[in-house]
């Protein structure tokens, strides 16, 4: 009888070993990057991420039906504002007592307005129907549709916010369906498309309609627009009605203290957010960088318009200083397909890429250089940069004051004096940083869409402070906060670090 129990013991031991081995395999598989995409710097995006605006837009319009707005204005606005205010109070108190990190915790809760199609889908279709690669130019010679692509941040953010939650990858923001649950309100009006593709008076009329629609919303009336996000990423967009929405959060390409693009008091870092342009050039990924870095035999490269207005007047002076110098390539260029190819070749052959101010302090050229692995040499004393609360641009770019750059021989001597070890380190950092400037569908963790919401989270307490403060001031109170934290941005050339 005893012999009959021996096989059972072996069976149990075998079963135990099998389960143990299966458990170890399951754990290893769970940790495998095949199951969950790594967030390491070398894995810039998952293979299915689409970074082309045209391709992504085509898929979006094919898959997403236009919807009619439910967020229309109603009679009895004061009652609606009061009801919303009470609902927000109850929601905020509940979160305050249940979430130990409120209001600092992520994800941010964003309510996306369902605006009438003439402000959203119709404009996207207008872009798609009229797209052409050739002769439709702005007054300063830029191809209109390509310019819209550079400033298409409004599309990338909106497309991600309204996508089904099952298809989204970001955990920094969620869309809520009840306004009282929202931290912020997103206004999905395509201000740049309407400015460039509509007749002037027609565009202004649409701006006025959009303004009335937005400011009629109870949530806007409750906060004065302080918790509303409006994409105005081209410096000409929404210009005729900006004064009526200046308390809202603007998504901008840069800021400007000269008054050429924004009136005093309209934009400042404490309220608004700088977003990167959509790069013109293709990403030079890890394999590309490994192939091109040994072949970068050009010291300094620039291709673009050599004469600009406003702050960009420094370009022609730099051209006079640098043209003809050994190891320097300065070319007049445009943004068409031929220009794109020439710029891409030039940037991938160069150690440094010149990034001077244009008509505005910023330029898409900076982000072209970053995704090309070419160290930007930034000469723009008024420049503000995207996500600077998170990213340290000193690790990937050189900042040169205009005064130093124009001294005879100074800039080239400075660049030639940078040690190879530092150049290599900055190139490695560029490979890591490029992911932060690639808009995509679906939006990627640590991509620009994700960093928008991480930066917004830092503004939230201040937004709520000014909203609540504005609601309780009485006649005779000091209604305006006079604390001014906007010193001039003065570039100081850093010393060469070995």
Automatic annotation (TrEMBL):
UniProt domain Exostosin GT47: residue ranges: 107-415
Record keyword Transmembrane present: yes
Cited InterPro entries: Exostosin (IPR004263), Exostosin_GT47 (IPR040911)
Domain of life: Eukaryota
One Pfam family, short name: Exostosin_GT47
UniProt topology in membrane: Single-pass type II membrane protein
Cell location: Golgi apparatus membrane
Transmembrane intervals: none
Molecular functions per Gene Ontology: glycosyltransferase activity
UniProt xrefs under PANTHER family: EXOSTOSIN FAMILY PROTEIN, EXOSTOSIN HEPARAN SULFATE GLYCOSYLTRANSFERASE -RELATED
Similarity comment text for this entry: Belongs to the glycosyltransferase 47 family.
Protein name as annotated: Exostosin GT47 domain-containing protein
Source organism of the structure: Vigna angularis var. angularis
Lineage: Eukaryota, Viridiplantae, Streptophyta, Embryophyta, Tracheophyta
Gene name per UniProt: Vigan.06G251800
């Amino acid at each position: 009888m005893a012999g009959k129990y021996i096989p059972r013991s072996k069976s149990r031991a075998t079963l135990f070993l099998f389960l143990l081995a299966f458990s170890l395999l399951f754990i290893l598989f769970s940790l495998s990057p095949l199951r969950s995409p790594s967030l390491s710097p070398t894995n810039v995006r998952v293979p299915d991420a689409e970074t082309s605006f045209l391709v992504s837009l085509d898929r979006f319009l094919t898959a997403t039906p236009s919807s009619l707005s439910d967020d229309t204005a109603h009679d009895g606005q004061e009652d609606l504002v009061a009801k919303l205010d009470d609902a927000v109070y109850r929601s905020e108190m509940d979160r305050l007592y249940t979430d130990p990190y409120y209001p600092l915790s992520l994800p941010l809760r964003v309510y996306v307005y369902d605006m009438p199609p003439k402000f959203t889908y119709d404009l996207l279709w207008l872009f798609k129907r009229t797209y052409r690669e050739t002769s439709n130019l702005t007054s300063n010679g830029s191809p209109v549709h390509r310019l819209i692509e550079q400033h298409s941040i409004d599309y990338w953010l909106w497309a991600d916010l309204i996508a089904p939650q099952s298809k989204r990858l970001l955990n920094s923001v969620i869309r809520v369906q009840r306004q009282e649950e929202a931290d912020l309100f997103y206004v999905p009006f395509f201000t740049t498309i309407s400015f460039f593709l509509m007749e002037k008076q027609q565009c202004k009329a649409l701006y006025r309609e959009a303004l009335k629609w937005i400011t009629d919303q109870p949530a806007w009336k409750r906060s004065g627009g302080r918790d509303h996000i409006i994409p105005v990423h081209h410096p000409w967009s929404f210009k005729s009605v900006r004064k009526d929405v200046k308390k809202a959060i603007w998504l901008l390409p840069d800021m400007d203290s000269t008054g050429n693009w924004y009136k005093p008091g309209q934009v400042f870092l404490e309220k608004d957010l700088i977003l990167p342009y959509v790069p013109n050039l293709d990403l030079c990924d890890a394999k590309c960088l490994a192939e091109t870095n040994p072949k970068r035999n050009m010291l300094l490269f620039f291709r673009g318009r050599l004469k600009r207005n406003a702050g960009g007047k420094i370009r022609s002076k730099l051209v006079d200083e640098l043209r003809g110098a050994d190891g320097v390539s300065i070319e007049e260029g445009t943004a068409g397909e031929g220009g794109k190819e020439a710029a891409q070749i030039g940037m991938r052959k160069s150690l440094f890429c010149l990034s001077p101010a244009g008509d505005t302090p910023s330029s898409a050229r900076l982000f072209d250089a970053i995704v090309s692995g070419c160290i930007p040499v930034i000469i723009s004393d008024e420049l503000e940069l995207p996500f600077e609360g998170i990213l340290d641009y000193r690790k990937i770019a050189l900042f040169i004051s205009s005064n130093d750059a124009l001294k005879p021989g100074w800039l080239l001597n400075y660049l030639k004096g940078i040690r190879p070890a530092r150049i290599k380190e900055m190139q490695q950092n560029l490979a890591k940083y490029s992911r932060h400037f690639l808009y995509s569908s679906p939006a990627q963790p640590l991509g620009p869409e994700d960093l928008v919401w991480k930066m917004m989270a830092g503004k939230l307490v201040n937004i709520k402070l000014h909203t609540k403060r504005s609601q309780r001031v009485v006649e005779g109170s000091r209604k305006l906060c006079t604390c001014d934290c906007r010193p001039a941005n003065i570039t100081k050339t850093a010393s060469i670090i070995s």
